[in-house]
Design a protein that fits this description.
By secondary structure, this protein is mostly helical. It has three domains: about 1-95; about 120-255, no CATH class; about 365-464, no CATH class. It has 21 helices and two strands. The chain has helices at about 10-15, 20-35, 45-50, 60-70, 80-85, 90, 115-125, 160-180, 185-205, 210-230, 235-255, 255-270, 275-290, 295-310, 315-330, 345-360, 365-375, 385-400, 405-415, 425-435, 445-464; strands spanning about 130-140, 145-150. Strands 1-2 form a two-stranded antiparallel ribbon. The two termini are about 40 Å apart. Mean pLDDT is about 80; it is low at about 85-155. It comes from Streptomyces wuyuanensis. This is Tetratricopeptide repeat-containing protein.
Length: about 475
């Protein structure tokens, strides 16, 4: 939350140059990976730094920034000295030791990715609030803030900016873990902070102004994130309910950005559920909402959703028209108006979504070409998306009469599924590929893939 003492950080803004906050945040995350750090940096964080709300970064961000700008000090980057920001209480703290967020086995260590400001917010909102009963909901990869229920026996207190920040932090953490691991291990446990967010929204029903807007937007975005976890883990009706909840929140709050996001995911879900006309309508409704936001990238994604729906209906001409519009919009580049949640939407995702269109239309070789581009361009850090693109590629190759190549790519997907990635969606795609390859066992590499796939199926079923 901005204070009256906040002074814009012009030096940091100068270093960002012509890049959008989202693009610069992506560079920060990449630099973090280079030195073994994992920071949940996004456009909002960059905005807070530039506005002077974050006067000194935490130790993880400090290491990343100094790595990005060798030879410069924190003062050169426009930050204040730590002791002048933290006060006497901070002087006795032991700095967090260097080290990666994820341990060598891929699990989350006790190191936090959040700034000290965000950590304080989480403690206040989720650990000591008189409004809610709080539990630290373990996702298996580390702690995630969450609550169980409103405590009727505790006095109501004002819901303010701290609670809104805590909800926003929970959204970022869920997205971060989903990028790394996929949805299956997260969905049920992520429902707990979602209940907390809507409890806070209800408790703050009389809250007004920007805090009320942030709380509604955060609760809606959290509903979409949990809906996506349900979607990716095969719980389509649960996902539909969460997306509808987000859409209702958007409508009540008059939040067109949240409305566009909810329609985007609703279209995707409808397509996956075989409700292609509903998918077309939802994508077009999302475009109408997004038209007010000035984000070409968001319009491009929604137009790709529409293209996929036309493909599902077998309407090649409609699909091609939508694809052409999407490429034109995407080609206009990113902007400061692009939503924070769209950080995943780059060239790899564009290629993957086009591959899905050609697959639905039965043009397997063309689909395989686009899926190959998606996998080749994807940053390996996003393990779940890389596995998804490879699963798409394996399926397209199998149907394009390239069984050996399909089996080789399928082996890579199995490597991911036997590692940190858990996704019913990806496994279902691989199951379909195995069925297609069943009659080609004599082809080099196919038998090995089929046997390995069959051996992992019972363990996968037991985890669901």
């Amino acid at each position: 939350m901005a204070s009256s003492r906040a002074v814009p950080n012009l030096e940091f803004r100068r270093l960002r140059g012509q890049r959008s906050p989202g693009e610069f945040a992506a560079l920060v995350r990449r630099a973090a990976r280079e030195i073994g750090e994992q920071v949940a940096c996004d456009a909002r964080y960059i905005g807070r730094v530039e506005a002077g709300e974050i006067r000194c970064p935490n130790y993880a961000y400090e290491r990343v920034f100094l790595h990005m700008f060798p030879g410069l000090t924190l003062a050169d980057l426009g930050f204040s000295a730590r002791e002048t920001v933290r006060g006497r209480a901070a002087r006795g703290r032991t700095p967090r030791p260097p080290g990666p967020y994820y341990g060598s086995n891929g699990t989350n260590s006790t190191n936090s990715t959040y700034s000290n400001e965000e950590s304080d917010v989480l403690r206040r909102a989720f650990m000591t609030s008189g409004t809610v009963t709080v539990a630290a909901a373990s996702l298996g990869f580390g702690p995630l803030p969450g609550t169980e229920a409103l405590r009727s026996d505790l006095p109501r207190q004002r819901v303010g900016a701290s609670e809104a920040s805590a909800v926003e932090a929970a959204v970022r953490q869920i997205r971060l873990l989903d990028d790394r691991h996929g949805a299956d291990g997260l969905y049920k446990r992520a429902a707990q902070p979602l209940r907390a967010a809507y409890a806070l929204l209800d408790a703050g029903a009389t809250t007004r102004g920007s805090t009320a807007d942030r709380l509604a937007a955060g609760a809606g975005e959290l509903a979409i994130s949990v809906g996506w976890l349900a979607h990716d883990s095969g719980r389509l009706e649960d996902a539909r309910s969460h997306y509808a909840e987000a859409l209702a929140t958007a409508r009540v709050a008059g939040d067109t950005a949240l409305e566009a996001h909810a329609f985007c995911n609703t279209s995707f879900l409808a397509r996956d559920a075989g409700r292609h006309r509903e998918a077309v309508r939802a994508a077009q409704a999302g475009q109408r909402a997004a038209g007010q936001l000035g984000s070409d990238r968001l319009l491009a994604l929604l137009t790709l959703r529409e293209a996929g729906a036309w493909a599902g209906l077998g309407d090649r001409a409609g699909c091609e028209r939508a694809l052409s519009r999407a490429h034109t919009l995407f080609g206009r580049g990113p902007s400061d108006t692009d939503p924070e949640w769209m950080s995943f939407f780059g060239e790899p995702e564009l290629q993957a979504l086009e591959a899905q269109c050609w697959s639905a239309l039965g043009d397997w070789p063309r689909a395989a070409r686009h899926a190959h581009r998606a996998a080749a361009l994807q940053d390996p850090h996003f393990a779940r998306n890389l596995a998804l693109y490879r699963a798409q590629l394996a399926a397209d190759l199998a149907r394009a009469d390239a069984p050996a190549e399909a089996a080789a790519v399928g082996e890579q997907v199995l490597d991911a599924l036997e590692g940190d990635v858990e996704s019913t969606r990806i496994r279902a795609m691989l199951d379909d590929t195995a069925r297609v390859l069943g009659s080609r066992r004599s082809t080099a590499g196919v038998a090995s893939f089929l046997d390995r796939h069959a051996a992992t199926a019972p363990a996968a079923a037991a985890r669901v």
